Amino acid sequence: PARIVLYGRPAGGHLASPLGDTANLPAPDGDLGPHVGFATKVAGVINFFGPRGFEQLSQLEKADVQGSALRRLFGGPLGEKVGAIKQASPLSHISMDDPPFVHFHGNQDRIVPYSQSELLHAALAESAVPSTIITIDGGGHGFRGRRIENTIQTFLDHTLFGAEDTLTDTT
Asked: Nearest CA to 91 among 59, 115, 123?
């Protein structure tokens, strides 16, 4: 686990974030399979525009209508799923021993609001967890490019190999 960095785009970002910040919690690790008791903490999380604060998303207009993505994810009306919504939110599990995060998000994303990355970034920083948010000015829900590749490489070099280059929110 010390040499594993999680990487996720939209739904994968949603899965990478809670895996990154639940390593010290017994419930998410479960008690099935041959690897019970092994460390699950990862070295870092690279998160692309995935949803993070489900409590906040569930308050948005149209979030709780029949057929909405959140209703499908949680299996019914959101008012009946408050516990599951909180459990699924990476914001609910942050602790000071979480691995470093880098978030990529377009500030014009119409699918997952940019504020979702801001929420997680702020909560991690408040807990003294290294966190960098890379804002793609004018970016929507999906983007690529040399800047992003270079930023990922810098993050991996620093996180996995101790390189001195670090990220800033303006990297």
From this structure: 123
The model carries a pTM of 0.83
Q: How far apart are alpha carbons 59 and 78 in whole angstroms? A: 9
Residue 82's CB is within 10 A of a number of other CB atoms, namely: 12
d(CA 134, CA 82): 30
**Which run of H or of E encompasses 45?**
strand 44-48
15 burial level (CB within 10 Å; 0-12, 13-18, 19+): middle
Q: How far apart are the first and last CA of the chain?
A: 26
C-alpha 162 chain-centroid distance: 22
Q: pLDDT per residue over 37-73, tens digit each?
A: 777 789 999 999 877 777 676 665 567 778 777 788 8
